[in-house]
Design brief:
The structure is a homodimer. The first copy, chain A, is an alpha/beta fold. Chain A has one domain: Rossmann fold, CATH 3.40.50. In chain A, about 40% of the residues lie in helices and about 10% in strands. An eight-stranded mixed β-sheet of chain A has the order 1-8-7-6-5-2-3-4, sandwiched between helices. In chain A, α2 runs parallel beside α3, α5 crosses α7 and α5 packs parallel to α9. Chain A starts with a strand and ends in a 5-residue tail after the last helix. At the A-B interface, β3, β4 and α4 of A face β3, β4 and α4 of B. β4 of chain A pairs antiparallel with β4 of chain B, so a sheet runs across the interface.
Chain lengths: ~375, ~375
């Protein structure tokens, strides 16, 4: 497993990986949208802020169906760098891993099957009143997690929500975790100032301060979080009681970790974070630095290398564009584990390039 | 497996059962509504025709959550006989079988997680234009079936849609299968005349005759079917290519069989129908008589006996009330198979009675 980096909590991470080798996973992708992503300059998960409402739905259409339906081509950043859903799709396809999509709250419904939990799109966190129905969505997602845990050996849970690192920062600060300047970004130039300012406006509007909601994570989500969070949290809590769960994502996962620690700390022993090398090498973020404040959970990362790709859009990942999303890192880790290491990161790159060249021919946005 | 009756195609049925013994199933419940159920006297799947819109959602709430949310108590017939969801719930609980809910088209959304396929509620089949978006829903359901088939050893698929035997008759006649007087009913007195009259009005309105749509099952659904059908069909087609599928239901399953035979006959070898003894002993219906016209698929039935139940509402099943629904028969068969026969039909009855007495205390409808 040379291609999987043990980035934090090395020994626990090694045990986690050994335990899952050759086992049967299910990949679940939790999607949602928040008006926070429409703040200019905050998210690159869409060609422009208006298109961020389409990104999660287009991502999961690509994931389950092999191409997007609600947009032409694939989601791209303003610079034209393609979505990490391409990576996730390639990993699941090569390792024949089943996938399921779960909505936490959307504006644009994907034209593929998805699990509805009764959640709504998130409001701009500067309102201090970002997410409705948090507790109910957590409860429904728990039921999904409990049931899915009876079908496979472990779960890999990814997410797609533009603006998600800002809402993660919101929840982390509301819960008293020092995350300023530590959350990642889909842009090479992480707009930390803008994120902090946005979160502080939300905390002020909600009448809370750093740490006020350390013991009330559901209220932290309701005030300054996003609708992906209650769905993701419930899913992990429901499943990790029975099977291991690989939480697939970047610094947003540290917010989920904090939420779970406040609700069900005992299940954290059955979890790990799975991400990409590009999150680790991001000098403008500090995933391990946040995780270390929360829980003793391993951080694993797939060592993908796009520097020799024939596509500039993929090479850009090496320069810090996109980095992670749609559970790309975790899906690659699961593909390697399921294949008992017979799938290489090079095979992944070739599969990604194949899909990319096919899909970009139809890109007319 | 004394408690499972080999009702039709005995040898194939025996092989099917032997093959699944001790294996790991997933139960999927496909729900939908049709305005056809509002024709007075056509359905007993609700206290009155208006309540039939609530029945499927209440059924799956009971299934996943242990009690109904969108109504108090549980769905009952006009005579107060409770839903077979009680049987399904007991079977899944005793054998620890995971469940998932899939909507084909609803008026009242269940307050539990469910898979959305983009379908709509069905219109009265007398319009001859009963179901929208049939092909798209089949395609989306296929994706679900393909993915779920990678998680477990086999699928059990049940349904809940009031008015479903009338729409089944519609599709069967449109496809040229002699089913007049052969479909079952949730009432002891099967209103065959009313059903036939309803279907004939639908066929007339659609400008079709007996057998016109033998090779166009999707149009048969669109004209005189219901929104459960495309979802159920796609799910079976997607899954049965890879794993066995037990189609859990009564005479409605013969319509699904006919649809699948016209679309993907090669997968029928990987299917069986699982139902209840009460469907077999229904002198006013003929499941085997319909199946025999369609395909060489086994019919299996659970030999539940409620004649000594302490509850009149359950005893009424022995007099021909309800009979089947929510995949009750197939869920019991799967429970017995999964437990390698350690779960008895008596244990099932005790579990059903326990749940029934708890739930009826809150019945205030």
């Amino acid at each position: 497993m040379n291609n999987i980096i043990l980035a934090y909590n090395v020994n626990k991470g090694k045990t986690f990986l050994e335990h899952l080798k050759g086992k049967k996973p299910l990949f679940a992708c939790v999607i949602g949208v928040t008006e926070t992503a429409k703040i200019p300059g905050i998210s690159a998960a869409g060609k422009n802020p208006e298109l961020t409402y389409y990104t999660p739905s287009a991502d999961v259409e690509l994931l389950l169906f092999g191409k997007c339906k609600c947009i032409s081509g694939v989601p791209v950043t303003p610079e034209g760098i393609p979505t990490p859903a391409l990576i996730t799709r390639a990993a699941l396809k090569l390792a024949d891993i089943p996938a399921i999509v779960i909505s936490g709250g959307l504006k644009i419904k994907p034209q593929i099957p998805f699990i509805e939990l009764g959640g709504s799109p998130g409001r701009d966190i500067r309102t201090g009143n970002a997410v409705d129905n948090v507790e109910e969505v957590v409860e429904r997602a728990k039921v999904v997690g409990e049931n899915l845990a009876k079908t496979v050996d472990y779960l890999v849970v990814g997410e797609s929500i533009p603006g998600g690192t800002t809402t993660a920062l919101g929840v982390l600060l509301a819960m008293g975790i020092d995350a300023e300047g530590k959350v990642s970004s889909s842009m090479p130039n992480n707009p930390h100032e803008l994120k902090i300012e946005t979160v502080k406006a939300g905390l002020r509007a909600a009448g809370i301060e750093f740490g006020t909601l350390a013991k009330d994570p559901l209220r932290a989500i309701a005030c300054v979080g996003d609708p992906m969070m209650p769905a993701f949290t419930g899913l992990v809590i429901g499943a990790a009681d029975k099977v291991p769960v690989l939480m697939a994502g970047g610094t947003q996962m540290s917010a989920i970790l904090a939420i779970i620690k406040a609700l069900n700390p005992e299940i954290l022993d059955n979890t790990a974070i799975g991400t990409t090398k590009w999150i680790l090498s991001d000098g403008k973020a500090d995933l391990a630095g946040i995780v270390a404040q929360v829980a003793d959970v391993p951080v694993l990362a797939i060592n993908l290398d796009f520097s020799h790709s024939k596509f500039e859009g993929l090479k850009a990942y090496e320069a810090g564009a996109v980095k992670e999303g749609v559970g790309a890192g975790g899906a690659c880790i699961a593909a390697i584990l399921k294949s008992a290491c017979s799938i290489s990161t090079n095979a992944l790159l070739l599969e990604i390039e194949k899909a990319y060249s096919q899909l970009m021919h139809s890109d007319k946005r």
